[in-house]
Amino acid sequence: MEHAVQTATAIPVQRRHTRPRADALRNRERIVTAAREMFVEFGPDVPLDDIARRAGLGNATLYRNFPDRDALVREVVCSVMDRTVRAGEVALAETGDAFAALERFVHAAADERIGALCPMVSSTFDEHHPDLEAARERAEGVIEEVMDRARAAGQLRTDVGVGDLMVAVAQLSRPPAGTGCLSVDRFVHRHLQMFLDGLRAPARSVLPGAAVTLEDLRRA
User: What number is the average pLDDT over the span 102-116?
Assistant: First the structure.
């Protein structure tokens, strides 16, 4: 009997987790969402304490998920690119008109504030981080597929490249110097549509220079 008691007491007690994994994932997403909003509004140097406050969480929760600013900025940029990829995939799957899929993808990219976030890639952290490179490759692959389909359908002019589209979307969705990003939002989709109309085939003019490729962008 004594041996049985000793054996029973030796079995480790299984502790219950006080917070399910789903809660931790939701908190992480709240931090990323708040950071994205504040990076767009105030730039990448916004205090992390302010981000935690907007997310409705404590500082400890933020630092438990993201040990430093670089980690948080990288996660924000990767998540934006991943959502843009999903938008492109949905556009390809749901839109029978190839050029309409391209339009849908471009406007979705603008809604993600790509132009406001792009400067952080080169100025804030290692742009060759594996997570960032993987997200960039996924995004570039979807952009190429959307454009190839429109070009094959004879709807996209042949003298433009993926780099042309990426540069234009980034520039047109970035607020001009001296203006707030949110204050010019109402103009972004109007100007993007003007640009998209200029991509339609047949081309009405000859573009100077050559189509910009992804390799051109990497060398720039």
Answer: 82
Q: Which residues contact 210 (CB under 8 A, 6 or more apart)?
A: 159
Report the distance separating Cα 126 and Cα 129, nearest Å. 6
pLDDT tens string 146-159: 999 999 999 999 99
- Residue 38 makes CB contacts below 8 A (sequence gap 6+) with 46, 50, 51, 54
Q: Is the pTM of this model over 0.70?
A: yes
* Dihedral angle sign, alpha carbons of residues 121, 124, 125, 128: positive
Candidate CATH numbers 1.25.10.10, 1.10.357.10, 1.10.287.1080, 1.10.530.10; the one for domain 73-220? 1.10.357.10
3-state secondary structure at position 44: coil
| Cβ–Cβ under 8 Å, residues 150 and 98 | yes
For residue 63, give every residue at least 6 positions away whose Cβ sits within 8 Å of its Cβ, in sequence order, or none: 48
